Amino acid sequence: MNEELTGAEITIRCLQAEGVDCIFGYPGGAVLFIYDELFKQDKVRHILVRHEQAAVHAADGYARSSNKVGVALVTSGPGVTNAVTGIATAYMDSIPMVVISGQVPTNAIGLDAFQEVDTVGITRPCVKHNFLVNDISELANTIKKAFYIAATGRPGPVLVDIPKDVTQQKMTFTYPEKISMRSYNPVIRGNLKQVKKAVELILSAKRPVVYTGGGVILSDAAKQLTELVKMLDFPCTNTLMGLGGFPATDKQFIGMLGMHGTYEANMAMQYCDVLIAIGARFDDRVIGNPKHFYNENRKIIHIDIDPSSISKRVKVDIPIVGNVPDVLKELIKLLKSTKEDPDQTALAEWWKQIDLWRERDCLKFDRQSEIIKPQMVVEKLYEITKGDAFVTSDVGQHQMWAAQFYKFDKPRRWINSGGLGTMGFGMPAAMGVQLANPKGKVACITGEASIQMCIQELSTCKQYKLPLKIVNLNNRYMGMVRQWQEFFHGNRYAESYMDALPDFIKLAESYGHVGIRIERPEDVEGALQEAFKLKDQLVFLDFITDQTENVFPMVPGGKGLSEMILV
Amino acid sequence: MENEAGALSRVAGLFSARGYNIESLSVAPTEDPTLSRMTLVTSGSDEVIEQVTKQLNKLIEIVKVIDLSDGNHIERELMLVKVKAVGVDRDEIKRLADIFRGCIIDVTDKSYTIEVTGTSSKLDAFLEAIDNSAVLETVRTGASGIGRGDWVLKV
């Protein structure tokens, strides 16, 4: 117990004590002692990526699909700057993560040393918190704090910057079992008075909507949410980040809302009289222009763990700050104990209205097309995987089609960069998902533009035999950019055409993977089936899709949710 | 806030990143050396101030945030002004300093350095009272504030 350990050994012991079984990283000068200690043990597995951005995305995918804290390890200077995109991605989506970065020795800090960068300064605006460890005596405590801060309250990435000399110094190692911080005490239980007010408002609702976001997924509240919604027979919509929080195949699910949300979900948001927002933050892609955010007067209940999310963009009537599952349990308990029910006649009328909106069939597309429609590929993927795959995506049209057409019944199955919108996220995130779920089927829905932003990770997938299925919806355009240019910039397709594309099949094959090109609609299903039969192989499916297809419905920027462009 | 390196830059960074303005900011350790107290003066609508407060509370190193202007409070700022003081002006400037309960803390045959303490608007008034061309240099600390009466901000 009282042996003296180096800072590097302490770092690894801390990871072991936190139960970390897998980290993602890339070695370099400042972290060589840490890598040396990694080498000498076998409890923490290290996955070597090909670029630090991918290390962080992979740790992110690992965290999102498992609810464990993701861990990445990078070196100083460029190691850190490469990681920044990944850290900002995790920050925007509130993903629990600890990033350990090497730093130049303490006596060289500030002297423009080789591979020196002000890591704490550069990452400050995109982390939940960060630390520079100045002395080995602070190391274990700091790592403990980092894990605690990352995973509690509204989760987020925490960075620990460790100078090289600190990894060499020696000290007796004790890992604190508990940590308490006077300046950080996240609220768990909601204020009971507020919950009681919420119950009254819920019981008075005539046209209610339950609108839920990523907070439900992150806090593992899908069970409580489903119970509440079923109990009340209210319609439920999920944000892009919230998909899987309520089963998409349930008849009470009215689809995703927002810029590319369904007609019925967006209309219900605008015409409801009681809006119950849970673990969501009313962001611009979800509610559009807050000044146009209602067609009828209504009251809003907002449940969220982060007080600063409440009344940020939209003023709410009953705020409840607390951990979502805890608040929902309280809410369910109180609702069960009252003898009252919401007005059933009004509710039936409301459902009738919603069903009329549904009849608009806003997600229809040409199923007879002789060119492959991207929506059809996602539908087939859903059918073949029986809705049970983990699906990651990059950013753009394919991301929206994935969200619209893959029906997620379970939480933590849909992994995408919602807040930051990071192209290049999909494949590295899928690696993390596969490592967290070795038996899971993992598909990465992507496009030919996004996939090229982290294409080097095909090499990592080869090294660790990660049998991802890459579903490349190849329309030879940055599709979403092209769509905006078509709608709002007079069809001037400035720099959105993807010229000089590689032969993705040969590229995949050069890494030892399988590549399949699919050019006809009738071959889509067969190719997908073949891909999933190859259980131990990464299969790169290059679907040559319709170049002109657009994502509908669409709420143009600055408009209200009911001002949709429809097919 | 915790008296830790970097805490101040988190606050400053938050204000610039979210487009809030800082009119003045003064910070120093308290009687408990692990804690610093910062008085920050900003302006905005009620909604903006609510967000500023919530966002500050979210910073890990911030222990407690209060809006002093919610209740009765006392506010003081210190200013040092170096002014030209020759001929007849020497007496006039001395009289003005007395009126504002300022102290002359350094003297040369051409100048006075005056220390004035008070609310920020009192310091503004003093500067307005002195002939602008006489002012050689000013330095101000920004306001420090504390609640009135028995009420105490403790952590």
UniProtKB/TrEMBL annotation, chain A:
Its EC number is 2.2.1.6. Gene3D superfamilies: 3.40.50.970, TPP-binding domain. Pathway: Amino-acid biosynthesis; L-valine biosynthesis; L-valine from pyruvate: step 1/4; Amino-acid biosynthesis; L-isoleucine biosynthesis; L-isoleucine from 2-oxobutanoate: step 1/4. Keywords: Amino-acid biosynthesis, Branched-chain amino acid biosynthesis, FAD, Flavoprotein, Magnesium, Metal-binding, Thiamine pyrophosphate, Transferase. Coiled coil: none annotated. GO terms for biological process: isoleucine biosynthetic process; L-valine biosynthetic process. Residues 195-331 form the Thiamine pyrophosphate enzyme central domain. One of its GO terms (molecular function) is thiamine pyrophosphate binding. One of its GO terms (cellular component) is acetolactate synthase complex. Residues 394-542 form the Thiamine pyrophosphate enzyme TPP-binding domain. Its cofactor is thiamine diphosphate; Mg(2+). Binds 1 thiamine pyrophosphate per subunit. Binds 1 Mg(2+) ion per subunit. It catalyses: 2 pyruvate + H(+) = (2S)-2-acetolactate + CO2. The keyword Transferase applies. Belongs to the TPP enzyme family. NCBIfam families: acolac_lg, PRK06965.1. This is Acetolactate synthase. The lineage of its organism: Bacteria, Pseudomonadati, Pseudomonadota, Betaproteobacteria, Nitrosomonadales.
UniProtKB/TrEMBL annotation, chain B:
Its EC number is 2.2.1.6. Residues 1-71 form the ACT domain. It catalyses: 2 pyruvate + H(+) = (2S)-2-acetolactate + CO2. GO terms for biological process: isoleucine biosynthetic process; L-valine biosynthetic process. The keyword Membrane does not apply. It comes from the Bacteria. SUPFAM superfamilies: ACT-like (SSF55021). One of its GO terms (molecular function) is acetolactate synthase activity. The keyword Transferase applies. InterPro entries: Acetalactate_synth_ssu, Acetolactate_synth/TF_NikR_C, Acetolactate_synth_ssu_C, ACT-like_dom_sf, ACT_dom, AHAS_ACT, AHAS_small-like_ACT. CDD domains: ACT_AHAS (cd04878). Pfam families: ACT_AHAS_ss, ALS_ss_C. It is an enzyme of class 2 (transferase). Pathway: Amino-acid biosynthesis; L-isoleucine biosynthesis; L-isoleucine from 2-oxobutanoate: step 1/4; Amino-acid biosynthesis; L-valine biosynthesis; L-valine from pyruvate: step 1/4. Catalyzes the conversion of 2 pyruvate molecules into acetolactate in the first common step of the biosynthetic pathway of the branched-amino acids such as leucine, isoleucine, and valine. This is Acetolactate synthase small subunit. It comes from Nitrosomonas marina.
